[in-house]
């Protein structure tokens, strides 16, 4: 059986968790959290990083920090995870969905400007599969209109756009360390920013609306309630797990890219003959092997292929149902312009097994099974009716 995902484990997780327990420091913001903050700041080349309890919470924090209020509009793709939208809807925003690009499944940067109104407060760029959105175009349209940019970089740690880390372009970057992501702490995430003022406000929002972070640094002699906030900091046990992962970030990244390359090469014959589409990595994008997907004819063929693979012990899964077609999405948002790509392409997409430690032989078995499904009719007489 080849699972779709296996949570990453590198070897030192338990040792670090034990250290946290022995040190009698298991609540948040101890030395493991601190280590992860410095690692993220260094790796991403950002001024500030804060671990959070999830990427969902990092997105909620950005909505709070941007002061999103009822009636504000936030632009994003419809092809994304629920949390991208929910974080802003919780603050009363209306979501304005924009179509995506067929090649990357990312927001179509050429359609953003037409979606901007006097109420638009933010654009959320989701880097699907760790492949960058066109950040130059997005940042320039945002600056021109004085609108904030939040990067949903949940899938994008270790990925770059023209050499610069994803998550470091916008006002805020939100990362996920859920067990389905390249690096994990079970449940968890991070919020990053280059804005000092936003960072100090973020510390307060993250610590129940108190200035406890400053108190711990000895900058105030007691901590009190100074603003609105919630509890968005993870336990040291989770941060200890994450440290073991981040220490081997390069190894994990290379291993995933290797698997990605095996798939891409093995499935090239089907892509070249137009039987399937495979991911496009635009010029200037360094991705992180977060996902390998193929696109088949339509959702019917996809269902057949899922069954075909399942019968061979291979778990392949589809992905997002576009948010604008969901009941909450219809209630809280609207689609700007026409949905030309989003629905059609999302119904064709199938994700193949991908995780740190997936054996080459297993990747090859997946490839063979996909090739077998698409074998020309002459070789599959039993299927001719
Ligand atoms: C995984 C994911 C999230 C949510 O991350 P959590 O850490 O589980 O809250 C949000 N957005 C995208 C694009 C994701 O892939």
Automatic annotation (TrEMBL):
One of the protein's GO biological processes: polysaccharide biosynthetic process
Residue list for modification N6-(pyridoxal phosphate)lysine: 181
Molecular function (Gene Ontology), one example: pyridoxal phosphate binding
Known cofactor(s): pyridoxal 5'-phosphate
Keywords, ordered alphabetically: Pyridoxal phosphate
Pfam families: DegT_DnrJ_EryC1
Lineage: superkingdom: Bacteria
Active site (catalytic residues): 181
Family: Belongs to the DegT/DnrJ/EryC1 family.
Name of protein: dTDP-4-amino-4,6-dideoxygalactose transaminase
């Amino acid at each position: 059986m080849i699972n779709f995902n296996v949570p990453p484990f590198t070897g030192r997780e338990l040792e670090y968790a034990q250290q946290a327990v022995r040190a009698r420091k298991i609540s948040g913001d101890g030395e493991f959290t601190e280590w992860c903050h410095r690692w993220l700041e260094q790796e991403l080349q950002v001024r500030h990083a804060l671990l959070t309890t999830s990427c969902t919470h990092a997105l909620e924090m950005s909505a709070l920090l941007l002061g999103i209020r009822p009636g504000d509009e936030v632009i994003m793709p419809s092809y994304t995870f629920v949390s991208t939208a929910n974080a802003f809807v919780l603050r009363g925003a209306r979501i304005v969905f924009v179509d995506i690009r067929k090649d990357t499944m990312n927001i179509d940067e050429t359609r953003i400007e037409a979606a901007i109104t006097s109420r638009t407060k933010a654009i959320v760029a989701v880097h699907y599969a760790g492949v960058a959105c066109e950040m130059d175009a997005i940042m320039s349209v945002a600056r021109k209109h004085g609108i904030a940019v939040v990067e949903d970089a949940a899938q994008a740690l270790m990925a770059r756009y023209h050499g610069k880390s994803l998550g470091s372009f916008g006002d805020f970057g939100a990362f996920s360390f859920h067990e389905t992501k390249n690096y994990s702490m079970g449940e968890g995430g991070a919020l990053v920013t280059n804005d000092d003022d936003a960072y100090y406000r973020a510390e307060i929002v993250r610590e129940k609306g108190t200035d406890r972070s400053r108190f711990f640094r000895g900058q105030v002699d007691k901590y009190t309630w100074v603003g609105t906030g919630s509890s968005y900091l993870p336990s040291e046990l989770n941060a200890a797990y994450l440290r073991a992962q981040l220490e081997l970030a390069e190894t994990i990244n290379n291993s995933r890219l290797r698997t990605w390359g095996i798939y891409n090469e093995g499935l090239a014959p089907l892509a070249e003959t137009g039987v399937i589409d495979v991911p496009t990595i635009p010029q200037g994008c360094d991705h992180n092997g977060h996902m390998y997907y193929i696109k088949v004819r339509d959702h019917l063929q996809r269902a057949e292929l899922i069954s075909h693979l399942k019968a061979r012990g291979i778990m392949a899964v589809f992905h997002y149902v576009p948010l604008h077609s969901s009941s909450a999405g219809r209630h809280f948002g609207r689609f700007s312009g026409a949905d030309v790509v989003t629905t059609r392409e999302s119904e064709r997409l199938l994700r193949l097994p991908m995780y740190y430690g997936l054996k080459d032989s297993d990747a090859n078995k997946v490839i063979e099974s996909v090739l077998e499904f698409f074998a020309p009719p002459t070789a599959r007489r039993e299927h001719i009716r």
